[in-house]
Amino acid sequence: MKDKHKTDVGQWMLTRRSAVTGLLGSMALLTLPRMGWAKNLQSDYTLPSKASRFLNVSAALTERSDLDPLIANRTYKAITELDPSQTAAIEKLHALLTDGMSARELFNAATDAGLKDTVVNIQTAWYTGTVGSGEDSRLIAYKDALMYRTVEDGLVVPTYCDFGPLWWSGTPVPPSRLPANNSAS
What we know:
about 180 residues; two-stranded antiparallel ribbon; 4 strands
């Protein structure tokens, strides 16, 4: 009599135990990049030169020195893939940039040079976390969009989760009191 929990697949038998083991092993392999050693790889990340210049322009336009290089690279790629003419425009913006230049000064210089749309695209990308519009839009960063930084001390990023996106990846908050339904007998 054939075991109802085994399925003949080629020359070996697939059991429930081997299927679950395979599934758990696959899940473990998928979570490895999220572990601690992957964070070390991120800190050693070196931007390509054009993306590095884009990061410098972005830092000046947003007046933030702590922009993420990985997000900068993804944003640069998305902007230049959607509109290849932006590559030259970003290079022109970088040429306009001088040490100590404020965002307003760079914006005015860019406007005079006919690069206002490029500046708006870059600032929009960093603050909304998206590049493009309509069907061509690309999500680059949701949780890390700059528009949420101004309220991060009091509000979570809007989401259907009570504690913001990726809340389960942080250290849990310790309980501050016993549950109300816990009674001493």
